[in-house]
TrEMBL record:
InterPro entries named among the record's database cross-references: P-loop_NTPase (IPR027417), Rab (IPR050227), Small_GTPase (IPR001806)
Entry keyword Nucleotide-binding: yes
Molecular function via GO: GTP binding; GTPase activity
Gene3D superfamilies: P-loop containing nucleotide triphosphate hydrolases
Nucleus in keyword set: no
Organism: Anaeramoeba ignava (Anaerobic marine amoeba)
UniProtKB keywords: GTP-binding, Nucleotide-binding
SMART domains the UniProt entry points to: RAB
Protein name stated in the entry: Ras-related protein rab-37
């Protein structure tokens, strides 16, 4: 198994970041690769970084829906240097993973 697919195998959550100022970075989200190689129903959070700068991407949520075939994936926008939404992102992940674990253990 190549290293790249091994990374996904035992992971249940993924944080995938893109640059809000660079449309090409949206094309590199690897959502299909995650879904093909990760455990069933992985939790995927997409983070648009550089929210403090003017965005070159019109309506990023629609573009992401197109790239993910309309699947609902949680989106965050953040300013990394100011830690904007960083805590919210991790609290969201922890809550979702904890709830999934409770559901799985029933």
């Amino acid at each position: 198994m190549p290293f790249t697919t091994a990374i996904y195998k035992n992971s249940s959550a993924f944080i995938v970041a893109y640059d809000l100022t660079d449309l090409d970075s949206l094309q590199e989200l690897f959502i299909e690769e995650i879904e093909n190689h990760a455990n069933e129903n992985p939790l995927i959070v997409i983070v648009g970084n550089k929210a403090d700068l003017p965005s070159n991407i019109e309506n990023p949520e629609e573009k992401i829906k197109e790239l993910t075939n309309g699947k609902i994936i949680k989106l965050f926008e953040q300013v990394q240097k100011e830690s904007t939404n960083v805590d919210e992102l991790f609290f969201y992940l922890i809550k979702k993973m904890k709830n999934a674990q409770k559901w799985h253990n029933q």
